[in-house]
Amino acid sequence: MNKDNLTTSWGAPVGDNQNSMTAGSRGPTLIQDLHLLEKLAHFNRERVPERVVHAKGAGAHGYFEVTNDVTKYTKAKFLSEVGKRTPLFTRFSTVAGENGSADTVRDPRGFAVKFYTEEGNYDLVGNNTPVFFIRDAIKFPDFIHTQKRDPKTNLKNPTAVWDFWSLSPESLHQVTILMSDRGIPATYRHMNGYGSHTFKWVNAQGEAVWVKYHFKTEQGIKNLSTDVAAKFAGENPDYHTEELFNAIEKEDFPAWKVYVQVMPFEDANTYRYDPFDVTKVWSHKDYPLIEVGRMVLDRNPENYFAEVEQATFSPGAFVPGIEASPDKMLQGRLFAYADAHRYRVGVNHNHLPINRPLSAVHTNHRDGQMRFDSNGGGSINYEPNSFNGPSETPENKQTAFELSGFADSVSYDENDHYSQAGNLYRLLNEDERTRLVQNIVDAMKPVLKEEIKLKQIQHFYKADNEYGTRIAEGLGLAVHQEV
């Protein structure tokens, strides 16, 4: 087999890749050694800034196949007929850890899917949990600061974590999930995925409904105990990444059945929980799961950096028939995610092969770093224009919905932070409750201020008397009075 010649990035052959050019055997090194300068300069730039959250992850290619007719709910073309297949790319990740952190930590898992549809890319950027810790994006930077490293010690800070949660009671539902058995999935293949937010589906007649997405693993739910997870973290911190890659290599292709809950548009005004509050779920009795399709992952990336690290997902990447809801957390993410990619990967990140739509792209965007296509050539870059340039399509306008109230900084009207967390606790069997309580007790013991522990115990107690009492007993504290 003939070898390829080593070249510079501009295609010139390299004569010596073992020795730099120097003035004699002792040097100094000559600045005219352009191959050396290029190697070092490129090496210094081989790492794009890691994601602020979801830094550690794994991904795979696959497809989505429609298995049920949902055209009465949405006009999205990739959902238009049973049997239709759409290629996709999925990235799984931990949330708080850095790029080199262990896969098996107790943490939510990111569950992001990019559908390469004929109408453009549709990104569904969720987690393996149906709810989240907060419900307003203005709190997100503060929350993530508590999950990251302390600015003084550069260590994880349990006091900051529980201080924030104790002062943000809306977090209780997600905290309960996180500290339960599902806080550490056995693998990426053995966990469910959720869109978490509420979204709007619109059909061809312009009729709208509200939906929530559920990806149910066909492999079954499996989790790791705290002890086993810690063992894996020490012995193989890339366990989940390796397991997913090897399963696909062996053609043991993971799959998820995809469902939605559908809420009639007007029900949003009368439902007992605010349907746009991402800290709440909708009862399956009220809004049963409706099958949509099946996701299968059947191909590993050829290059991790090009496909997994440079993949960019945004909850604002919609296609006709799928729109945003007034969910305050989602509204903030519509901006924040795309803006993070403009910073991290570059303003032209959607031109990279892993992010490039399969459909034609006609925008008036020009220039910017790493614009590596024809940059629009000499075509018109404004609209409206008189030269038959790309123009808007009024039929794809987003549907209108009524707004009311004063422009103000306001919270959600509904502040029941306890009933769903309590219901979840009562659904657990005794062994599951015991592990949940022990996980919380162990996590709270390092908290430095007793006042923080007492505040948090009150939240558990309000969700369920037994729940709060058992945690208080585990910490050697009482719950007899409000803090």
TrEMBL record:
Belongs to the catalase family. The keyword Metal-binding applies. GO terms for biological process: hydrogen peroxide catabolic process; response to hydrogen peroxide. Residues 1-23 have a biased composition (Polar residues). Its cofactor is heme. This is Catalase. Its EC number is 1.11.1.6. GO terms for molecular function: catalase activity; heme binding; metal ion binding. PANTHER family: CATALASE. InterPro entries: Catalase, Catalase_3, Catalase_AS, Catalase_clade1/3, Catalase_core, Catalase_haem_BS, Catalase_immune_responsive, Catalase_sf. Keywords: Heme, Hydrogen peroxide, Iron, Metal-binding, Oxidoreductase, Peroxidase.
